[in-house]
Amino acid sequence: MIEGGVVLKSLAEVGSTVLYVLIGTLILEAFLYLVLMRWLKYRYALPFMLLAPAVIGLLVLVVYPLIWELNLSFGNMSLRRFKNWEYVGFTNYVRVFTEPVLKQRTLWPLLGQTVLWTLINVVAHVAGGMILALLLNREMKGRGLYRTIIIIPWAIPQIIAVLAWRGEFNYEYGFINVILQRIGLAPIQWLTTPGPNFAAMCITNIWLGIPFMMVILLGGLQSISGDYYEAAEIDGANGWQQFWNITIPLMQPVMAPAIILGTVWTFNNFNVPFFINQFELESSDILVTALFRAAFQYNRYGFSAAFAFVIFIFLLVYSIFYLRATGALKGVR
Amino acid sequence: MATTTVPTKQKKSFFEGGREDSPFKRLLIHLALLAYCVITVYPLLRIFTVSIRPGNRLLSTDLSLIPADASFESYRIVLFDKPLLQWLWNSLAITAATAIIGVILAATSAYAFSRHKFPGRSLGLIFLLTTQMIPSAMLMVPIYILAIQLGVVGTYRGLVVAYSVTSIPFSIWILKGYYDTIPIDLEEAARIDGCTELEAFWRILLPLSAPALAIVFLFNFTQAWNDYLLARVMLGAQETLLTWPLGLQRLQAQFTTLWGQFSAGAILVTIPVMALFLYTSKYLISGLTLGSVKG
Question: B3 pLDDT exceeds 70?
Answer without folding.
Answer: no
